Amino acid sequence: VLYYSTSLFTAAGLEEWQSKYATLGVGSVMVIMTLVSIPLMDRAGRRTLHLYGLGGMFVFSLFITISLLIKEMMSWMTFISVISTLCFVIFFSVGPGSIPWMITAELFSQGPRPAAMSIAVLVNWLSNFLVGIGFPKMQEAFENYTFLPFSVLLACFWVFTYYKVPETKNKTFEEISAIFQRGVD
């Protein structure tokens, strides 16, 4: 969404100049919601926000797919596509955009933390790279169904987070380690 939002908005039926402004909106929403997520992490909890973020991204990736599929039938679906994309970015910013960085730092003690963070950064940027270079080919192959593979992955990530990722809010490393010893609550 972030790399190719202008072309997505153009494909959804917006004019080129409208697509550029919608992309500015995506960036602005992302910055604002990332700032909003900081105090929310301490109130709602990291795991809860991550689950909400993944769930919201899943729902709105389906809405994006539906709006792209029926945009020719109803002209107002272009705006649903833009709104769905903005909502997708909101949920990304509140959940998967910021939470994994916090959780990764909290899951490991001081000794292995730098190595764990390095691996997390490597996986993050490698995934970004693969999505960045692969998305145009996916768009070419899947056309309006491009977001469905991402929807499946989001559902898998939600299930993994629900069953395997503990809440780290207000917990010490020792408490988090004990949770892993007996299994996630």
Automatic annotation (TrEMBL):
Q: Where in the cell is it found?
A: Membrane
Give the matching Pfam families: Sugar_tr
The species this protein was found in: Penaeus vannamei
Q: What is its main location?
A: membrane
The protein's gene is named: GLUT1
The record gives the membrane topology as:
Multi-pass membrane protein
Annotated Major facilitator superfamily (MFS) profile domain residues: 1-169
- PANTHER family for this protein: GLUCOSE TRANSPORTER TYPE 1 (PTHR23503:SF128), SOLUTE CARRIER FAMILY 2 (PTHR23503)
- Would you tell me the protein name for this molecule? Glucose transporter 1
Q: Specify whether Cell cycle is a keyword of the entry.
A: no
Q: What GO terms are given for molecular function?
A: hexose transmembrane transporter activity
Gene Ontology cellular component annotations, sorted alphabetically: membrane
Residue ranges annotated as transmembrane are 20-39, 51-70, 76-103, 115-135, 147-165
Which keywords does the record carry? Membrane, Sugar transport, Transmembrane, Transmembrane helix, Transport
